[in-house]
């Protein structure tokens, strides 16, 4: 068995829809132990029964999932009704099954190429080539994709997310990835798609990565790994794969690569990659704070939420000979303390950001990793609590949990929005390559809609009551005290 994608996805769907293994077993007239084995990867259903099994699973999920769950998963799959959702889930589970069992007929390959019409598992066919590639060597990769029109599993695979984790685990500047997509297909109201997009940027930021916008990506997927393999897929209007053509012929791959690169326009790059130090020196960091309508989504503890004495101490140690950056950093901190008094500042902070800070002590200080002891962590959490207590006009909410199980092992990024300056602060553990300044006006509007969608409409995961947020900070301070006693 190549992997357990089928079991993983089956388990995720059952948990999200609050369906017990026993319930599925009863519906299938199977012993519940079979369901457990499928989910754990110890076994898979037989080929002759897989379609009927998937039909039952999808029927249970669609008919018995909660109203909020069904509404969210319809947005994820771009499904307008239950029938479309059930069809999308069926295609995904069948594709996951075929990838898990490696069910491919290699007799179909002719002259190093294959053609599959309406594939059930389009990605396994393509990934089979990738498994033979020596990723320890430099590579040139080009992708042109209608990413946001694709099915759920395809989005994850193209974003480089597998088994709820990033596939890129270390910095690889010798792998050049050209990614071209149609940003017009990204809807800010789809919280899942925007978060997936930001996580994709985080994952690929460890490569030599360029991202461009082109309408040519609509309705298709073209990809090429130079000298290894290439493929073309056409999509239906509903985003399903109509057909896939792939080849291991080097000349074909080179031709497809050149065709993709021809759509890459430097003037249509969606982001500028910066360092936080350069943002300080060019005063773009300061400009964001001075703009109207500051909206922050905070994924980890950062420099603007710490005490002045700790800030001064770190400023001296981390910027010893950088006078301009040090001066601008200090000004930014002082201005931030003032803007917390304004009524047009909105802050959403992930509960996981505070919990991770309490446990690890990791602080992002202008993109410099600082680790604080438990006693100091408690002091900074107390400072944050007082900040929220003293600034009653400051709009504060907390994201509790996450927006999808697909990202539960992935650290959340930071997003900073204002009327004219938007930038992302990615969590990729390489702080010199994690700042993306949004250049595209259409993408800025997508992020604005996304933020408003979470702030106003996602009460299932967003805590609005300030008292509950303060109580969580109290809990974390108590935990930091216990850690301090141990240390």
UniProtKB/TrEMBL annotation:
<dbReference type="GO" id="GO:0003677">
    <property type="term" value="F:DNA binding"/>
</dbReference>
<protein>
    <submittedName>
        <fullName>XRE family transcriptional regulator</fullName>
    </submittedName>
</protein>
<dbReference type="InterPro" id="IPR001387">
    <property type="entry name" value="Cro/C1-type_HTH"/>
</dbReference>
<dbReference type="InterPro" id="IPR010982">
    <property type="entry name" value="Lambda_DNA-bd_dom_sf"/>
</dbReference>
């Amino acid at each position: 068995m190549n992997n357990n994608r089928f079991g993983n996805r089956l388990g995720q769907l059952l948990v999200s829809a609050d369906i017990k293994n026993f319930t599925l077993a009863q519906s299938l007239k199977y012993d519940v132990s079979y369901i457990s084995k499928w989910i754990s990867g110890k076994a898979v259903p037989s080929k002759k029964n897989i379609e009927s099994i998937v039909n039952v699973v999808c029927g249970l999920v669609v008919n018995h999932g909660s109203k909020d769950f069904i509404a969210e998963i319809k947005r994820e799959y771009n499904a307008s009704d239950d029938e479309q959702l059930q069809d999308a889930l069926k295609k995904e589970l069948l594709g996951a099954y075929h990838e898990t069992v490696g069910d491919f007929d290699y007799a179909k390959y002719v002259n190093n190429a294959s053609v599959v019409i309406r594939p059930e598992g389009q990605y396994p066919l393509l990934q089979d080539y990738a498994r033979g590639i020596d990723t320890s060597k430099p590579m040139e990769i080009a992708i042109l994709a209608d990413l946001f029109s694709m099915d759920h599993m395809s989005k994850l695979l193209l974003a480089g997310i597998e088994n709820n984790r990033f596939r890129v685990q270390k910095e690889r500047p010798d792998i050049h990835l050209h990614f071209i997509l149609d940003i017009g297909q990204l809807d800010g109201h789809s919280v899942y798609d925007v978060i997936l997009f930001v996580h994709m940027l985080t994952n690929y930021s460890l490569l030599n990565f360029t991202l461009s916008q082109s309408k040519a990506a609509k309705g298709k997927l073209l990809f090429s790994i130079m000298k290894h393999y290439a493929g073309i897929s056409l999509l239906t209007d509903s985003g399903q794969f109509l057909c896939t053509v792939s080849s291991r012929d080097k000349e074909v791959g080179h031709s497809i690569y050149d065709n993709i690169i021809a759509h890459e326009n430097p003037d249509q790059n969606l982001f500028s990659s910066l360092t936080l130090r350069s943002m300080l020196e060019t005063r773009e960091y300061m400009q964001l704070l001075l703009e109207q309508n500051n909206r922050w989504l905070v994924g980890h503890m950062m420099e603007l939420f710490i005490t002045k004495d700790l800030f001064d101490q770190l400023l001296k140690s981390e910027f010893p000979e950088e006078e301009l950056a040090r001066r601008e950093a200090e000004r930014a901190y002082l201005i931030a303390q003032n803007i917390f008094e304004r009524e047009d500042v909105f802050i959403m902070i992930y509960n996981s950001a505070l919990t991770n800070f309490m446990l690890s002590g990791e602080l992002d200080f202008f993109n410099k990793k600082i680790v604080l002891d438990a006693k100091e962590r408690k002091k900074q959490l107390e400072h944050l609590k007082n900040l929220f207590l003293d600034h009653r006009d400051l709009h504060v909410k907390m994201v509790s949990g996450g927006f999808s199980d697909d990202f539960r092992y992935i650290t959340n990024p930071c997003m900073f929005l204002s009327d004219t300056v938007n930038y992302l602060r990615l969590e990729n553990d390489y702080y010199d390559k994690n700042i993306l300044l949004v250049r595209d006006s259409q993408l800025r509007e997508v992020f604005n809609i996304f933020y408003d969608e979470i702030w106003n409409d996602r009460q299932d995961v967003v805590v609005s009551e300030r008292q509950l947020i303060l109580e969580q900070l109290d809990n974390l301070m108590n935990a930091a005290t216990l850690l301090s006693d141990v240390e």
